[in-house]
Amino acid sequence: MKLSSREYKLTLHAPEFAGDEAAYRSKAADFWTDTVNRLGETGIGASGKLNLLEPDKQRNVFFLDTPDKALYERSDLVFRMRRPVAAKGDWDATLKFRHGDRLLAGAPAFRLREGRGRGKFEEDVKAVPRSGMPGFWALFSRSVEAAFGPRKKLLTIGDCLAPFEKLDSASLPPLKEKVQTVSGLKVIEHVFEDGWLNLSKKVGAECALILWWKEDKALEPIAAEFSFRFALDDGEADAKVVRNAWTAMTALSGSPFIDPKGRTKTALVYGAD
């Protein structure tokens, strides 16, 4: 399957965004100002405000897996449930196969049993600390989305995987095995958008600032992440675009907002290093 996009991600110091809505909006504005200034010094332009928070980007999020996290640990699968906070209807479920091997990640053929959606095949690039210049680590993911009604009870692996077909049954835990909320963690997610990086005259990278709170601790975020992404399927992501994207990643790694040892959102949920 052909890669559709590349997304660069940087973990931020979550406590920087503590406080009420006015406080974290103010801190988000400070972060964007710092980002624009740092990138401007490298010749990379930025536009927009990164302050748009649409109602459908204020979401409840949780993950389901077996008590021993068999989907994640043995099958390299993540099963995520997400729905706008204000919504009372269907939950959007995402089944994602994640791996560092591009060919292996692109090989699974799972899809919805009904519908024409083929899903997405994407690359995530994350900064990793090392001596000298920052390094990076690429992770590839194949994902498909399904909808579950609000009254649908997901009690087993079979319940979760029912909308999908062509899964590798040999790697899956038994379908009757019970599932639970991973780490008991239920999250409120806010996604700030409307900021862009100008990686070339034709290619703009869409930016996002993502904040996570535990449902019962609304003033203390547990995760903060900045990302920017661009499409790969339009043939315009040439060497200049990729070089500027890496220049941006390197420049932003020096920001005081960046937590070089911070865990990704997925690692936070699953307790991984």
Features:
two-stranded antiparallel sheet, 9-stranded mixed beta barrel, 21% helix, 273 residues, alpha+beta
What can be said about this structure in brief?
The protein is α+β, with helices and mostly antiparallel strands and 273 residues long. The chain is built from 6 helices and 12 strands. The strands form 2 sheets. The protein has a 9-stranded mixed β-barrel. Strands 6-9 form a two-stranded antiparallel ribbon.
Question: Which secondary structure elements does this structure contain, and how are they paired or packed?
Answer:
Elements: E1 5-11, H1 21-40, E2 45-52, E3 58-65, H2 70-75, E4 77-84, E5 91-99, H3 102-106, E6 111-112, E7 120-128, E8 135-148, H4 157-161, E9 164-165, E10 180-198, E11 204-214, E12 221-231, H5 239-252, H6 265-270
Parallel strand pairs: 1-7
Antiparallel strand pairs: 1-12, 2-10, 3-4, 3-10, 4-5, 5-8, 6-9, 7-8, 10-11, 11-12
How would you describe the overall organization of this protein?
The protein is of the alpha+beta class. It has one domain (5-270). The chain has helices spanning 21-40, 70-75, 102-106, 157-161, 239-252, 265-270, and strands at residues 5-11, 45-52, 58-65, 77-84, 91-99, 111-112, 120-128, 135-148, 164-165, 180-198, 204-214, 221-231. The strands form 2 sheets. Strands 1-7-8-5-4-3-10-11-12 form a 9-stranded mixed beta barrel. The longest helix is centred in the N-terminal third of the chain and has 20 residues, at 21-40. It is globular, with a radius of gyration of 19 Å.
